[in-house]
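Hi R.,

Here are the chain sequences for the assembly we discussed:
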Amino acid sequence: MALQKVVRSTVLNAPIQSVWAILRKFNSHESWHEIVELSRIESQQQDSQVGCIRAFRLKDGNFVREQLIALDDHSYCSSYSIVESTLPISNYVATITLKPITDGDKTFWHWASTFSTPLNREREFVSLIAMSVYEAGFRNLERYLTFGKESRRSSEFNNQSLASSNVTKGRTVRISQYGGPDVLCPMTEDIGPPGRDEVQIHQRSIGINFIDIYLRRGWIPSMFTLPGTLGMEAAGTVICAGNEVTDFLPHDRVAYMSPTPGAYCTIRNVSKDHLVRLPPEITNEEAAAYFLKGITADYLLRDIGRIRAGARWLIHAAAGGVGLLLCAWAKKLGMQVIGTVSSDEKARVAREFGCEHVIVTKTYTFASHVKKIFGDGADVIVDGLGESAFRENFESLAPCGHWISLGQATGLFQSISTELLLSKSATFSRPVAFAYVATQKQMSVRAQRVWTALNDGTINAPPIERHSLESAARAHERLESRNTVGSLILIA
Amino acid sequence: MVRIYVSSVIEANAGSVWNRIRDFNGLPQWHPLIADSRIENQQPADKVGCIRSFHTREGGRIRERLLGLSDYEYTCTYEIIESPMGVSNYIATLKLTPITDGDRCFAEWSAEFDCEEDIESVLTNQIAREVFQAGFDALKRHFSYR
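And here is the predicted structure of the full complex:
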């Protein structure tokens, strides 16, 4: 692809030292260039450190990360390249050179770059860079030199006001006592500014999980005290961020899963450690519907199940949010899958999503059927059923099999004894997704695998059932009715 | 090693200014300090390696060799072979750069040379003002009267 070249130059009515004092600071464009809405140097590096990266948001919503690749105070020269951008520009390298104009104490400023664009969009980007970035930049810096900081119209976006100090009002769904769906009460709440390492998110879509129901019923009081707000995951847009947050900027689209409940609301402050930036191809609704569930499928298959081709998996609630993702992904990775569902309609959907064998049962009887298909039983059981299906699950387990208790929809296990496991040399685990995304690195790697699998068709996106935040109680009723297929989300 | 750097902005596009200064034998046509000039051995004035021999208005004779000429970069580099100034290893570059936001160009004239320490500041001043800046001033005058 042919490289495009842009060169622009001007004369500034200021001595070279004052111009260079501004331009040598890699993050200064936030103060003087109007196209830049907000910019940060990543990872607490200095802004004159060669190799540092500035992450910035343009007024039009585009996001760019640029790396300083050369800085020379002797020849007044700085070069940088784009390392990531929402604009389809590649191989972008730019150089700024200043020269003194000795007969007037002015400064000659030369700004040049080369880059590639998609075919037939050369003019568009050449003109964007030449005019909106370089020429506008010349005028903006000239004004900045004359009038100082006040010259920027958007003074609301300076560093101090990154985290708004204002208290905003939002809607939330509060619970004051454990119980049925009717304990979910929508109300208005005050939201303070985000903490130093927090990001304030305008939530658009909120994921509903079975754990929400367990918490509402008061089954895990250690995780959820009253009064409180349910919800482990949501997706939306960054409103503002605390001072220690360098990786997220206002208007970034993000999703999070947090071990601290509280997602059933419109605006929430969330620790940056639980956040991932969303790729353009994943909508907020998809993120809320498949984030925690997709990551659950990911660690079940990769970490606990260790992806053994031919392994025999028994997956309960196969038409549920996790179930459909898990069936589809397990099948693609070469495993044999039996799913259990409670209706013929769900059986149809489960089959459509890659579940080879479907057992329809409303009474949690499936062991003999499983053995008919798998011989001596299942190597792995993904069990969200709990106490009522305890015996049947144990019966279905092959020797040396692994029983994963993901949830206990029918009631908590009364007892599970080591003697019982011993009789089949079985293993048992009770995992929780948050332990598998303890670091931001783990979270982003797993999230990326889920988005990629959804995007490239490795797994089909399960159906999404939408409810408004205000009718969260109705959504819970639906999930508990066992009549839903796929994922449920709340729209804020 | 002494270094001189003089720069200016001339209110004409780089192409026009280049047309006026490109001729290695053309100093008398645009530089007020120079009285006459000829190229030795009947060589063309844009042949890299040619030597110009000229007199200043004060009568000093100077011989300079063309070391580089770029119509693309608007750059001319030359060295002094012979002069009454008492300099050695004298290499100078005259360069124009377009200024894209207006019909004007950025002109730079720089030189590096060796000389006796006691004449360094006088000589530096003299070359910077009477040769380089005076040349730019003449160009500025010329292009502002168009």
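Chain A has three domains: 4-161, 164-291+437-491, 309-430. The longest strand of chain A covers residues 90-101.

Let me know if anything looks off.

Best,
T.
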